[in-house]
Structures are given as C-alpha cells and as structure tokens.
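From the methods appendix. Each design record in this collection lists the tokenized structure first, followed by the designed amino acid sequence. Records were kept in a plain field format so they could be parsed without special tools. The example shown here is representative of the layout used throughout.

RECORD:
FOLD TOKENS (62 positions):
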C-alpha cells in the first residue's frame, strides 16, 4: 500500500460503474458568473503576456 502518494491510477472503469454517479452542478446563473470571471482572467493573462513581449522588444531596441 502506498501512503498518500498524491497520485491516482485507474486502469479500467466501465460506464456501468459511472452511470449511478450524480454530479452536482451549480445553477446556470452561477455557471455564467464563473465563466465571465474566467473570461476576464484570460483576457488579463493575454494582455499581460503581450505587455511582457512588448517590454522585451523595447529592451532589445534600446
């Protein structure tokens, strides 16, 4: 037995084992709110990446 290795390995799982499982989802409005937050975060990430690229370009020229 491996004591809490932090890794999981599933060699084989069938649909029959998965069918009875219920996955809870937040209400649609909450899903939309989360999606909007993630979209904003992604836009910020892209802008930051572009700012870093431009800064590096300016440093090379200067």
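DESIGN:
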């Amino acid at each position: 037995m491996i004591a809490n290795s932090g890794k999981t390995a599933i060699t084989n799982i069938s649909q029959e084992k998965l069918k009875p499982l219920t996955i809870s989802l937040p209400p649609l409005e909450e899903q939309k709110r989360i999606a909007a937050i993630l979209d904003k975060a992604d836009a910020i990430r892209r802008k930051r990446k572009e700012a870093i690229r431009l800064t590096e370009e300016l440093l090379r020229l200067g």
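APPENDIX NOTE: The chain has two helices and no strands.
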